[in-house]
Design goal:
Largest sheet: 5 strands, mixed, barrel
Radius of gyration: 16 Å
Strand order of the largest sheet: 3-4-5-7-6
Number of strands: 7
Strand content: 25-35%
Structural class: alpha+beta
Helix content: 10-25%
Distance between the termini: 23 Å
Shape: globular
């Protein structure tokens, strides 16, 4: 995992995980708070590679190559205040049907689950969606 903390006003943290690794954003937020920082929960952006799946009237991003996995994240409308994200999300959501069943790279805002509903999943509000590049085998991996 590669972590970069840029101390500006406000502080900015970029985390890059090794392929196949899933880090629960809830746990990451807890670690950030334990380190003495306050994350802006409405501004957490994730760029993920996975497959778009349709379940009933909803679309999910399925990450089946991560440990622990698979992880399924509900894709929905952006509910924050960033006007650019509102516009980008409105353009991106209708494209989900075109990408169903395909591997994609998706940039999205992550939302915490509803505190009142303990079974509610965390959600993603996509703002950018492209076909994923094929993953090349690791030349240094053990056979």
């Amino acid at each position: 995992m590669k972590t970069t903390l840029t101390i500006k006003k406000p502080a900015h943290l970029d985390v890059t995980l090794k392929p196949g690794t899933w880090a629960d954003p809830n746990k990451m937020l807890q670690k950030i708070e334990e380190a003495g920082y306050a994350a802006r929960k409405e501004e957490i952006r994730l760029t993920l590679v996975g497959k778009i799946a349709k379940e009933g009237d909803h679309y999910l991003l399925v990450l089946d190559d991560v440990k622990p996995g698979p992880q399924s994240l509900l894709l929905q409308s952006y509910r924050g205040k960033d006007t650019v994200a509102v516009k980008d999300n409105a353009v991106t959501l209708p494209k989900l049907a075109d990408f169903a069943g395909r591997n994609v790279e998706i940039e999205s805002y992550w939302s915490l689950p509803d505190k009142k509903d303990k079974t509610a999943p965390a959600t993603l509000a996509p703002v950018r969606l492209t076909l994923a590049k094929p993953v090349e085998p690791d030349k240094h991996a053990n056979p």
